[in-house]
Amino acid sequence: MAKMWAGRFRKETDAMVNDFNSSIAFDRRLYREDIEGSQAHAAMLAKQGIISEEDAAAIADGLRSILEDLDAGKIDLPPEKYEDIHMAVEQLLTERIGDAGKRLHTARSRNDQVALDMRLYVLREAREIMDLTLDFIRVLLRKARENLHTVMPGYTHLQRAQPITFAHHLLAYAHMFRRDAIRLDTCMRIMRECPLGSGALAGTTYPIDRFAVSDRLGMIAPTQNSLDGVSDRDYCIELCADLSILMMHLSRLSEEVVAWCSWEFKFVELDDAYSTGSSIMPQKKNPDVCELVRGKTGRVYGSLIALLTVMKGLPLAYNKDMQEDKEAVFDAVDTVKMCLRVIAPMFETMTVLAENMKKAAYRGFINATDCADYLTKKGVPFRDAYKATGTLVARCIELDTTLDALPIEEYRAVSDQFGEDVYQAIDLAACVAGRRSMGGPAPEEVERQIETMERLLKEARPQ
């Protein structure tokens, strides 16, 4: 079949070049956005008197029927027949309505057409990913509410450090994912400019109304510069950057769950529906979901690096290199959506082994800071209190015991400021309850964080 751009050429495109150049195999997923943009463009052309109302009506009906058939899977789009989704829709339209279909491309280029399609696609996918992120935050909040009093060790350097609660730990991730949602919301706000009307690079001589198209498509305004309008892919890069940070957070959380599921920790147990076994070791229950999330993070990072690399040396305006934006964005979007959809129910069904967390907390001397604070509140300088507590920890290690089980005589041998009330001060539940500073692990403070987050989630409305 002759190409729509074939008038200037005397020879057929080499078959290998045709395959190399074609993007229909992957950009076909943009058909809804392409048709939506074409509908807005045709309506504007008629309103401006550039095409007749009759042609506009025929175009609208034709596009609607193509959309319905594509949605229903009734149309095949073979690469040997169609170069890309934009040409495919136009060819199908012309086949169905005749010459009126050939008028659709008036005052438009594939350059501004694909720029619009990608913006509409990225905007919709960002909305969906934001919704999935907010849903996952809600799962974390529900799990946190169930574990306000579940004491566990907090870690630094992967060493037991101070007592916290499982709720407090989950809230840390909830805040990370809330920032991810904010980034996605910001990304959606700044990408809502409409490039259609930029033409190939220099606009058009037709009396088009770019604001009418922008308004119909729900955009904030037209892009202000036609060169930038067709050559900008910042929004694709920004989306992949935001998704990379989101995946980093999912990967960090997944890494913790992998550790928590091990017999060395045994803090949680995943539901059978979200675990796998071994082909040879019958005792195994593997956290493959988390390991795959951790591994797939690299794919999303790769999409970001690919886009940055493609764009870094391109002169204005459009260059064919920019066709490479699609597969990178599509893969990043698909990967993140899949990870969020599987990790949320995995967390929802996860069993928290509270007693194991508590036992681990008792064995790590994580109440040592509270022991030192006990002395400082009695007037002992902190550095002296720190040294005295360190001596007590060394004595506990020597006796294979813990601070809460160490006899009072051992305490008084180090400092005469110790009294029987030290055991209350270093009780793990008391240690956690005493950390009421804003953002701390005290149950009432964590509950405040949960309530604040729940209120913010109710107010969250993707743009």
Task: Record keyword descriptors for this entry.
single chain, 463 residues, two-stranded antiparallel sheet, 20 helices, mainly alpha, two-stranded parallel ribbon
Kindly describe this structure.
With 463 residues, this protein is mainly alpha-helical. 62% of the residues lie in helices and 5% in strands. It has 20 helices and 6 strands. The strands form 3 sheets. Strands 1-2 form a two-stranded antiparallel sheet. Strands 3-4 form a two-stranded parallel sheet.
Class based on secondary structure composition and strand pairing:
mainly alpha
Tell me the β content. under 5%
Gross morphology = elongated
Strand order of the largest sheet: 1-2
Largest sheet: 2 strands, antiparallel
Number of strands: 6
Poorly predicted spans = none
DSSP helix fraction: 55-70%
Q: Rounded to an integer, what's the Rg over CA atoms? A: 30 Å
| Helix and strand element order | HHHHHHHEEHEHEHHEHHEHHHHHHH
Number of helices: 20
| Spatial gap, N to C terminus | 42 Å
Question: How confident overall, as mean pLDDT?
Answer: 94
